[in-house]
Specification:
The complex is a heterodimer of chains A (323) and B (260). Chain A has 323 residues and is α/β, with parallel strands linked by helices. Chain A contains nine helices and 18 strands. The mean pLDDT of chain A is 95. The chains are: A alpha/beta (323), B alpha/beta (260). Bound molecules: flavin-adenine dinucleotide and adenosine monophosphate.
Chain lengths: 323, 260
């Protein structure tokens, strides 16, 4: 009978999608095994998530409001969550494997000396938590068990579907003691990407370009197709290393791991290191003029043709279909 | 300035796992081992900081079997500018979880007062992204993760950290733990003479007892490895007429795959 705490991550008052995906997954698990789902939300201003949390399956929502939660601070946020975990002793704590979550979860686990399993794509309970996660960049999956009283599990964005099959959550404010003196590394400025740009790891659709685009002047063609899909634009390492696009776009073993609903690879051969970062995408489309390119081995739909003809045509067709 | 850089030996990114079904343990005998690619950025950054300041010492630290990591330490650390190395070699740490590795590293790092401790953002075998942050916590230090640019002064640093949809500028006092990503620098290649000279640099080998700790145990266990779920056959769409191919694909993505 596990009790599962779900960290409801917000950034500037915006809730991360993975928060509701985790809440849904947690609810499905306790519906089968017993136990409760507790949302835990740290925020700086009036950001009421009670009804949303309930809809997605939380039984209770614990919220702490403090000006310190306006921006992420590793130390203060760890203090707050550590206090919560010590008081309520959840069996499982779910944290999104986001930039923030990857900072928070390991620090929390080290402070509490409990188990920490990152980037989970599967979560079950068999006399204890059983976590499925990709290792070797998705070349195989590991099933991990834990003997700790509390196991912190990082959940990969988009691994679970969000559903609204819950009910009402009971609101339970809590007021952790925050020792501001302990804060050291501080965010002094933020530069957000242009509005409307979807972040690669959270995107539901990703359109990537590789060396087949021939030169940096053609990357906008990939971005236009991405825009038509409402997608994020990615890249192979070849064109990142060539300096055609910034590293933040790189998908693969030494870039970002993405698992969108749809991944469109344009002019990408499908090297093992590239596949490592995208092969768990739900649907994969490959556009490549070489019909023997390895990318077609993992693709669901393929067009063996010249991307300079196909990509603009597809941009139009998608715009039409999506209205 | 005293800098430590933690490096891990991992299977080459070309490694094929190729499982036919679930197995309790991976057969690692055929794996070609390399330095974790992200740790190369950490090594390069440590050496660059030392060079820019014109003083300092860089120590490479690894947990792993001494015989296995010797070449990596020589070629990828000592030959490219690290001054010495520490190997924590303890059979009890084989297959240990990230927190156990972090405990061993923290014990090794505690013996000296480092101003900066650098890690890679993740190891490309376990893909955990945990050890650096955990070590920071165990040492009671701040941590700045996913850094893409770094500026170190005498008693503080400024780093750019990549987050979803943007970049944060983070300031931290020293000592500090940093986890390094790509884009930070271009790791240099070792020259032959430097590889020869690296053989002369000191490598200290210790076990947990020598560090004054009990071998840390793991809370988690990998019960089984399994192949990724198989992917279905590819549906090829003829490309003779690009506009028609594009329309057909768009329609299939909407009606068949239901992804748009
Ligand atoms: C340690 C290590 C880590 C790595 N990490 C990564 C990583 O994270 N991500 C990554 O992507 N790679 C990574 N790589 C590199 C990887 O091995 C490949 O070199 C890289 O993915 C190739 O990129 P590409 O597919 O764009 O280029 P290429 O392999 O050159 O492929 C270009 C493709 O474009 C096609 N093409 C050309 N013209 C056209 C056209 N007009 N229309 C349609 N198709 C066309 C060609 O048929 C070809 O298949 C790594 C390598 C190493 C050693
Ligand atoms: N066995 C190890 N020895 C030394 N450093 C390690 C070891 N394992 C992990 N690290 C460091 O921690 C980083 C993150 O590893 P991980 O948390 O396993 O993904 C790596 O890039 C290394 O810098």
């Amino acid at each position: 009978m596990p009790n599962i705490a779900v960290f409801i991550e917000q950034r500037a008052g915006q809730i991360k999608k993975v928060a509701w995906q985790m809440t849904t997954a947690a609810r499905q698990l306790v519906d089968a095994e017993g136990g409760e789902v507790w949302g835990v939300h740290l925020h700086a201003s009036d950001c009421d998530v009670t009804s949303e949390a309930g809809k997605h399956g939380a039984h209770k929502i614990f919220t702490a409001e403090a000006p310190q939660f306006a921006r992420y601070d590793s130390e203060l946020w760890t203090q707050a969550l550590a206090a919560f975990i010590q008081e309520h002793q959840p069996d499982i704590v779910l944290v999104g494997s986001t930039a923030l979550g990857k900072d928070l979860a390991p620090r929390l686990a080290a402070r509490l000396d409990c188990a920490c399993i990152s980037d989970a794509v599967g979560l079950t309970w068999q006399d204890g938590v059983v976590v499925k996660r990709p290792v070797f960049a998705g070349k195989c999956f590991a099933e991990v068990t834990s003997t700790a009283a509390t196991t912190i599990v990082g959940i990969r964005p988009n691994a679970f579907a969000q559903e609204e099959t819950g009910g009402e959550a009971e609101a339970a404010p809590f007021g952790p003691t925050l020792d501001d003196g302990a804060a050291r590394a501080r965010v002094t400025a933020e530069e957000t990407a242009a509005a409307g740009k979807v972040s690669l790891t959270e995107a539901e659709v990703v359109v990537s370009g590789g060396r087949g685009i021939k030169g940096p002047e053609n990357y906008p063609m990939i971005e236009k197709l991405a825009e038509a899909f409402g997608a994020a634009a990615g890249a192979s390492r070849a064109i990142v290393d060539a300096g055609w696009v910034d590293y933040s776009h790189q998908v693969g073993q030494t870039g970002k791991t993405v698992a969108p609903n749809l991944y469109v690879a344009c002019g990408i051969s499908g090297a093992i290191q590239h596949l490592a970062g995208m092969s768990s995408s739900k649907c994969i489309v490959a556009i490549n003029k070489d019909e023997n390119a390895p990318i077609f081995k993992v693709a669901d739909y393929g067009i063996a043709g010249d991307l300079f003809e196909i990509v603009p045509a597809l941009t139009e067709a998608i715009a039409e279909v999506r209205g | 300035m005293k800098i430590a850089v933690c490096v891990k030996q991992v299977p080459d990114s070309e490694t094929r796992i190729g499982l036919a079904g679930p197995v309790p343990e991976l057969d690692r005998s055929s794996f070609t081992m390399i330095i974790n690619p992200y740790d190369q950025f950490a090594v390069e950054e440590a050496v660059k900081i030392k060079e820019a300041l014109g003083e300092g010492e860089v120590t490479a630290v690894t947990v792993g079997p001494e015989a296995g990591v010797r070449e990596m330490l020589k070629k990828d650390c000592l030959a490219v500018g690290c001054d010495k190395a520490v190997v924590v070699d303890d059979a009890a740490l084989e297959g240990a979880e990230p927190l156990a590795i972090a405990k061993a590293l923290a014990a090794a790092l505690k013996r000296e007062s480092y101003d900066l401790i650098l890690f890679g953002i993740k190891a490309i075998d376990d893909d955990a992204s945990q050890v650096g942050v955990m070590t920071a916590e165990l040492l009671g230090l701040p941590h700045v993760g996913y850094i893409g640019a770094l500026d170190v002064a005498a008693d503080k640093l400024t780093a750019r950290r990549e987050i979803e949809g943007g970049v944060e500028v983070v300031e931290s006092p020293l000592p500090c733990v940093l986890t390094c990503g790509k884009g930070l620098n271009e790791p240099r290649l070792p020259s032959l003479p430097n590889i020869m000279k690296a053989g002369m640099k000191p490598v200290e080998v210790v076990d947990c007892a020598a560090l004054g700790i009990d071998a840390p145990s793991s809370h988690t266990t990998v019960k089984q490895y399994s192949p990724p779920p198989p992917r279905g056959e590819v549906t090829m769409i003829p490309a003779d007429d690009p506009a028609a191919a594009a329309r057909e694909l768009a329609q299939k993505l909407r009606d068949e795959a239901k992804v748009i």
